[in-house]
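tl;dr need the bound structure. longer version: we got a ligand (adenosine-5'-diphosphate) that a collaborator sent over and nobodys looked at where it sits. i said id run it. heres the input, straight from their email, havent touched it
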Amino acid sequence: MSLGEFDIIARYFAKQVSRSDVLLGIGDDAAVLEVRADRKLVVAMDTIVAGVHFPAGIDAEDIGYRAVAVNLSDLAAMGATPAWMTLSLSLPEANETWLAGFAKGLFELAAKHEVALVGGDTLKGPLVITVQIAGWVEPDRWLTRAGAQPGDLVFISGVPGEAAAGLAVIQQHLPLDDSARHLTHRFLRPEPRISLGRHLRTVASAAMDVSDGLLTDLGKLCAASGCGAQIDIDALPQSPAMQQLFASDNCVDYALAGGDDYEILFTVPPQRLAEVTSLPAPLPICTQIGVITAGSGVECRRGNRPFTVKRRGYDHFEKEQA
Ligand code: ADP
Ligand code: MG
């Protein structure tokens, strides 16, 4: 590396989002943080790898943004407020243009949510980025995947499938008209639903963020809650941009099985319905797509008929389908 490890940290990452609860930040052997006695610490970590989580060759700025976004999304799903993060950066080379772009995207989203980068690790290797994020939630107020009950309504924020369609636009080098640009933006710049998570922490019975695909992730929520779910394909939020560029079968496929949405999938008891149907801006639109059942697993229906799904979602270790 032309730039030393120390120079990389000093030049690109020592810049701070200042927070009074960071007693000691980057530069020592570890960070020291002030944690209030009346709050619980919430911690998550997510790694993104070139060629696995994003196509090699996308802008460094988008990669930096994304590394923070996927982590913020996990905290959103817990109903938590993010506060601090650490960054492990494995780089093939110390390219200054790349580092400047990466840091710009990373700090853009971190600053928006007042998250301070308090430490990390920098090493030479394949392009692998790990962010660990920490935040807080009030005692007994965190959301989990495990609280859904039969009869609860199943909701999704935003428009699932648009991110996967955006990835297809990038991979298939489709011409970038307005629809294509909207979809690629949804893939490259997911909006972590922090405010929605905060709103839901007193309303939802269960919640999780959707990263591997709606059906796969709903299956995980159902398994954790010990119940099943029934989804109505016709109730899925429609994406005009996706419908303009892709056949309707593919649109349903992206919505049900496409990953990378980073929307919040949640359940609410029917008597709390009013608290999620007319959310004040800037909270995203949330759409009821089904109900929790007493069985197990996720069943899809279209109108009154069962609907057979081609693809359910993403699993890193799944065996190749014959
Ligand atoms: P140590 O050898 O004690 O692990 P390092 O020399 O690796 O410390 O790191 C020096 C300081 O820089 C530490 O405070 C560490 O947390 C921070 N740091 C290293 N890499 C990064 C990074 N990519 N982003 C933010 N902080 C980093
Ligand atoms: Mg040390």
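gonna send this back to them w/ a short note. The mean pLDDT is 94.
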